Amino acid sequence: MKIGGHAGYSLLRWLKPGDKGQGSGETKLSYVPKIKRILGSEGWDDLRDKVVLDFGCGIGFGSVELAKHGAKHVIGIDIRRDVLEVARKYAEENGVSDACKFTESVDEKVDVVVSVDAFEHIGDPAAVLETMDSLLNDDGFVVISFGPTWYHPRGGHLFSIFPWSHLLFTEEAQIRWRSDFKDDGATRFHEVAGGLNRMTIKRFIKLVEQSPFKIDSFRAVPIRPLAWAHNRLTREFTSAIVECKLMKQGS
Ligand SMILES: C[S@@+](CC[C@H](N)C(=O)[O-])C[C@H]1O[C@@H](n2cnc3c(N)ncnc32)[C@H](O)[C@@H]1O
Q1: What is the 43 CA–ligand 1 centroid distance (Å)?
Q2: Atom of ligand 1 nearest to the CA of 195
Q3: Ligand 1 centre and the CA of 163: distance in Å?
Q4: Residue 190 belongs to some domain of the structure
Q5: How much is the pTM?
Q6: What CATH number corresponds to the domain at position 45?
Q7: Separation of 121 CA from ligand 1 center, angstroms?
Q8: Overall number of domains in the chain
Q9: What is the pLDDT of residue 29?
Q10: Measuring from atom 18 of ligand 1, which residue has the nearest CA?
Q11: Shortest-distance Cα residue to atom 4 of ligand 1
């Protein structure tokens, strides 16, 4: 039973009249540590001289870090033209625009795909895994870090105005509340700018199992204060992010 209708909307409005305090969702400070945690320092160093695809690059913090680190070429892909434009400027300011390309579509082969904080936003993640496979060289790999997942206390992102609030209110009441301060016309969670696909850990694992990839390494990282309660049964509610490395099946 969820709180919806005018009552749900009014309660949300009363609890949080605007979007004050909501961040951009970009991960300038944690992008590199996230990749390093999955690949190790040696693996991070090995990205030098590689062609890297940054899937869901946003405003390009990660792509620029990869280029500054020495990647041969970084392709940042995103569905939002506005963020791609910002990313191009950011690469220019950092002197790496020759090594970076920001685009809505790619057709060249790459050595590595990296995707940070994007998988809970992607509208058709199964199709994206297929795309990643088609763009990746046979001996390449995919590094994914994403979250918070849907049952995390803040899994609703902007909609989580208090822990797990996104699970208590109807989608309709939350979208109506959001439309008070966002004018992109979204009527469903997945229509908000950048998307929100309610990705759970279980769904993600199932998607990978049905994809052309196999899991090389996987970690559901506990929310620190809830680490004591974190296990396979509770992890949907007690994990902060998911980190994994995928290889092509048969490699
Ligand atoms: C939270 S941002 C993360 C940006 C960046 N990776 C970072 O860590 O700073 C998620 C990005 O994924 C993008 N995105 C969502 N669906 C996508 C898709 N199907 N293909 C490419 N990008 C997508 C969104 O537009 C958004 O810019």
Answers
A1: 23
A2: 15
A3: 23
A4: no
A5: 0.93
A6: 3.40.50.150
A7: 7
A8: 2
A9: 66
A10: 122
A11: 58
CA of 118 to the centre of ligand 1 (A): 5
- Show the domain range for 178: 5-21+157-185
* Shared-domain flag, residues 100 and 48: yes
Q: What is the pLDDT of residues 174-203, one digit of tens each?
A: 999 999 999 889 999 999 988 999 999 999
Q: Are 201 and 236 in contact (CB under 8 A)?
A: yes
